Amino acid sequence: MNHSEILNTVFPKALKLVLSISFVISSAQEKTEVMNGSLDNYIFNSQYNDSINFVTKNIFSVTKFRKAEKKTGNTVLRDGLPYLQESYTEYLPDGRKLYRKTNDDVHSTIEKFHYKNNLLVLKESVENKNTNSYNWLFYNKGNHLLEEIDYMIDDKKSFAYEGYTKYSYSSEPKKTIVKITDYSDDSLADPEEEYIFEYPFLTKKTPLYQSKIHRYQWIKGSYKPVDIKDYIIKDRDVTFSYDKNGYLLSEIWFSNHNALENKTEYYYSKDYQERIEQQYHMLGTEKSTKTIRRYDDRNNLVFEQSIEYTGHYQYADSFEYTFDQQGNWISKKYYRQDPDEVNSKKKLIDYEYREIKYYDPNSVPRSYTLPEFPKDAENIRTDIPKISNEKQNKIDAFREAVESGSFDSEITLKKAKTLEEFTPKFWTLKERAFGNLDESPEDEAVCVYETPIEGDLGFAQSLAIYKKEGENWVLWHQSTNPILSTEHGGMMGNPYQGISIKNKTIVIDHFGGSRQKWNYTHRYRFQNKNWYLIGASVNVGAPCDYFQSVDYNISTGDAIFEYSSENCDKNSPIKRKSWNEKINKKIPPPLMDEFQVGENKIELKSKKTEMFY
Hints:
- The chain contains five helices and 37 strands.
- It is mainly β.
- The strands form four sheets. It has a 22-stranded antiparallel β-barrel.
């Protein structure tokens, strides 16, 4: 039974945040291990997370092979099936990881786990030949997690900060409170998390999680979730119940604290080898999908099938294992059977193989030299909280200025020695470009700013154009029309892609969309004593669907339309279609200050198509 199967069958769907380390609390050391393992520190937990896959701890190494799609020079044949080596892992005698090398189609990754005084102090990753990642863990005198410091070093010895996490502890009678501040790679601090250990309960207050407050109870050797407050949305509660052996019996969702919203119930045979998950719909009042799972006596999943509320059976999945003398599986085959096919036979879908070597009297775990902790990383402890505080103060001041409206809505300074001086308070200068825009010999400058002015989607962005007068820059023109607002790109984020000056025109690029992407390029020129749009190019489309474009020269009226489509369905013949056509549509050039990006239509009537620019 692998890690994902454990999560899907033992832990409820509402809470797959952490797979706590299972210990029987019998000593101070084990209590410390449990506390550290319950703080959702990925690096600390990564040393243990393979142990769930084996029934013994005396494993020296495991070489894992996966299904090969086709035979190559690296393919290994076992029982007539082609395999590719996926990973090689070595362990300490107690099951903690020591070394791992993983392979994919592109490159290999090596992970080294460094221990000191029986504590994991460093996870070192070599992701390619040019980059090493370092995740350091530091502990207090009680061996509790105190800090995590993350950074990368490339082949040029350049140091790049990745993250910093700080743990602080306070104790009351029968209660320990841990507060966690996590500084991400942008140096900003996430909202503080609070973990309250009050045996047998653990309460986690995590403002960034989908579950804001979740409570665990120590049941049969591990912390299991018992209730969640404000799950995904405010005032939604989720409760969990267990049988005497610690197996989940129900997961029930309530809206407004007591109105039944959804539920899932679990049933087990006496030996737990058959387990049924019954979901409900219609606000938790009518039975929906039922899933039947069966396990062998080693707790490996051997069968799974879901039945829809209509009584229709879905695919039946089954798993076959071969075991070694220690009881660990070395071969796993995954079959699927279609219940809708007459005389359907199960088909081999996937397979894995594990080559397991165990410790013997001659086994010696590999050892490493612990790298030196660099000076640049030492500075993280002091510099990052300081930088974070400064950034947060700016963010808070910006937010307050937006709410109160106390900011400049345009650039008010008319002349300055540097372009930076023109930037109003709470504005951000994003990019500058230089080039000739008129008949004068001096280059002009264009700048793009993110402003605190609330736009239709996010915040407005502004364009400013500057001329040189002697040693000073002079504001020539400014407008928010040419640049889309900050959230106009949809899931792609800020749509602004760049600005340049070419052939005495200002060229502005935008990009956005989701599966279907779009690109805009607009060109503006100074003529007749004002700024006008003189050209636009638009590309819209998605892979395995279609791409359509138009290049519209507004000065001449010429517009070239192009279209192509493709069908990438492997089960159908490849179908491609393409065409291009040129038309002339002469219009007065729009003023920069009146033009609305993306809201102007040009039609190609012969193809019954239209594009917006």
